[in-house]
Amino acid sequence: MCGRYSLRNSKSVKDKHLLNIDVSYNIAPSNQVLTLTTEPTFMKWSYNPTWAKSPMNLINARSETLNVKPSFKMAKRCLIIADGWFEWRRTNNSKQPYFFHMNDNLLNFAGIYTEYNGEKGCAIITKKATTHLSEVHHRMPVIIADDDADGWLSGEDVFDSKLSDNIDYYPVSTTVNSPRNNNIDCVTASL
Question: What is the pLDDT of residue 92?
Answer without folding.
Answer: 84
